[in-house]
Structure formats: structure tokens, C-alpha cells
Amino acid sequence: MPGHVIKKYREMRNYSQKYIAAKLGVSQNAYSKIENNITQLTVHHIKELSKILEVPVTDLLKDDFEIHKPITIPRVVTKTDLLSHIEILHKSVEEKHAVKNDGYLVAMSLIIAAENAISHAR
Questions:
Q1: Would you call 85 exposed, middle or buried from its count of C-beta atoms within 10 A (0-12, 13-18, 19+)?
Q2: Which tens digit of pLDDT belongs to each residue from 20-69?
Q3: I need a surface site. Which of 10, 17, 95, 109 has the fewest CB within 10 A?
Q4: Which residues touch 36 (CB under 8 Å, ≥6 apart)?
Q5: DSSP letter at 78?
């Protein structure tokens, strides 16, 4: 999400939300909503943020998540099959470093919860 990318660049520059908000001409609260992806960004805001943060517009619009072809699961699924597919997913997510991907901890928690649920299923 653009807000998370913008936040990373802001933090890399050691700028406060208040500082960026003042440069944009908005309140700190309004700027916080941009970083939290509550408020949609306008083209004007993206251009201004690009100047303030000294990064190309395209870098602000990048998404950290990669799109992968979904794992195909056979129609008849056994407990062993599910655990095998979850292990593949677990390894794939584990390869991503938490600093590079805001969703890392959430993804790992979901995978572990799924593994536990399937392991204890009949």
C-alpha cells in the first residue's frame, strides 16, 4: 500500500509526520491517515511527497508484495496434503525479511494458526 511505502521513506529521512504534514499543507492527523491508507492520495500529494522525500513518484507507488501464481490443490485434499502446502507457503514467507515486508508477521501468524488447526483436525 502506498501509505506504508511513504512511511518507510519518511522514517528513512528521520522526518516526523508533523514536518511532512506542514510541507504538504495538511494537519498531522490528515497526514497520518495517508500513511495508514485511510485517505486516498491525489496526484498532487504524490508529486509533493516525491519532492519532500526526494524519491521518484514511481518508488512511492510501488507495492512491497509480489503476486505469485496460486498453489493448485487437488479436489480431494488430505490432512497431509494441506500440511505440505502450508509448509511450502511457510518457507516462501520465511524467505521474506520482516523489515522489507509489513505483512510478514501477520502472514507468519496466519500460517502457524492454519498449521495448528490442521494438525489438530481429525
A1: middle
A2: 999 999 999 999 998 888 888 888 888 999 999 998 888 887 765 433 44
A3: 95
A4: 3
A5: -
Answer whether residue 19 shows pLDDT above 90. yes
* 3-state SS class at 4: helix
DSSP, res 38: S
Residue 16 has pLDDT above 90, yes or no: yes
pTM recorded for the entire structure = 0.51
| Single-letter amino acid code for the residue at 16 | S
* Contacts (Cβ under 8 Å, ≥6 apart) of 35: 3, 4, 6, 7, 10, 17
CA distance 3 to 97: 19
